[in-house]
Amino acid sequence: MASEMMEALMALCQEKHIDQLYLIDRLEQSLAKSYAEILHLDWGAKVTIDRATGKIYVYKLIPIDDSMDEEGNYTEFQEIDVTPRDTSRIAAQHAKAEINAIVRNSAREQIFEEFSGRIGDIITGTVLQSTPDFTIVKIREGVEAELPHFDQRRYENERNERPHGERYLHNQRIKAVIIDVRDPNSTLPPVRGEHSRPPIVISRTHPALIRRLFELEVPEIYEGTVEVKSIAREPGQRSKVAVHSLDDRLDPVGACVGPKGSRVRTVVSELRGERVDVILWDDDPAAYVANALSPAKVTRVLIDEEKNYAGVIVPDDQLSLAIGKEGQNARLAARLTGWHIDIKNETLAADILRNVPVAPQPVAEDLLSDDEPERCAYVSAEGIRCRNQARPGSRYCGVHDPEGPEGGSDAFEDAEDLI
Fold it and tell me: Whose C-alpha in 63, 305, 372, 402 is 20 to 30 A from the C-alpha of 88?
């Protein structure tokens, strides 16, 4: 009977590609824990399996007094044979559980090795099952992924990777990006039910999904001629994509939109109607912010690089369009550009500038130095001003000064002859 069990184990190891010695060691450790509980052994048990015959031996461990170390632990034990008569039944149960665990862990290790380097890649899968908390997607035979959509008010440590309003049907094909691959040998504490859930975690809310979809639909992006500089997304509602062309002769926005909008329409269809705005990236922050607020038209953009602030002035009739519904357009533009954006219409901006105090300008008299003599203030009846310099302490020259020795009423009467 024992030899038949060993033959069955060896055949199973070959079928499942499991190391035979590794399986036997795991069985011995598992049986030792079980027999220590069954036989109520204080110091535990040791189990050995004969590799040739498959016979199982159980030993009771008794510590040797002289083997205690500095920490008070025994390092040597005396082994006493306490093998029960019927060990095959218990061994068969443990063998089945251990083989299932080894096969499951081996499969997860292989999946981790294959997909851990593919985080961020897009996959196409078939929906196998949907629950209120997650959807199981089949990538290929033997490989499944999890699309979590937990209620984070109830499960704070879980994820929600499903756009609002999306529902998936059995056998429906969907595209998603890989965002995580669970390591079966990780020492971190697992989340709820992690060992029984698929090792691959996928998402349909991640911005990388839009990037990968454009790579599939736009050859210029796949080839690297057009770059996707930045993506801002509110899943299921609206997204903004900033693109830049390395070829000056190529319009990056037109390449992404496609003939009659065919390319971007395919991306929108895969995103279940989510609106996608493709805007032109610019290395000038003011131009970039103005483009990001599209479709609104911008009058002027004021940039404060120290505070990472962008003040935007738009026409009065464009204010609501620039802000968007519930501030969505301005919010996405801020995420896309990385600038804090403050939007004001032209009327409000003019009022603000009108109320700003202006620094006083110096009068003309203040512009004259103390050493520079003034010109005579006398003006004739014909409107011609006297060219003479004024006397010190007076506004008039010596001819026209009424208080001077040569001045007076006669001087004013003969002034025309001196001009």
Answer: 63
Assign 223 a pLDDT band (cuts: 50, 70, 90): very high
- Range in 191-195, 351-355, 397-401 the model is least confident about: 191-195
Q: Are 303 and 285 in contact (CB under 8 A)?
A: yes
- DSSP bridge partners of 280: 243
Contact 128, 136 (CB under 8 A): yes
Give the type of residue at 250.
L
Considering the entire predicted model, what is its pTM?
A: 0.68
Q: State the virtual CA torsion across 157, 163, 169, 174 in degrees, nearest 10.
A: -100
Contact between 39 and 45 under an 8 Å Cβ cutoff? The reply is yes
Token pair of 213, please? Answer: 């979809």
**127-158, pLDDT tens digit by residue?**
999 988 899 999 998 899 999 999 888 888 88
How far is the first Cα of the chain from the last one, in angstroms, to the nearest whole number? 142
Query: How far apart, in whole angstroms, are the C-alpha atoms of residue 301 and residue 311?
Result: 6
Residue 371 neighbours by CB under 8 Å, 6+ apart: none
Going 407 to 411 to 417 to 419, the CA torsion angle's sign is positive
Q: Give the whole-angstrom CA distance, residue 215 versus residue 218.
A: 5
Residue 411: per-residue pLDDT: 43
Taking alpha carbons only, the member of 207, 210, 230 closest to residue 218 is 210
Chain segment 294-319, per-residue pLDDT in tens: 999 999 999 999 999 999 999 999 99
For 309, what's the count of Cα atoms within 13 Å in the CB-facing half-sphere?
A: 6
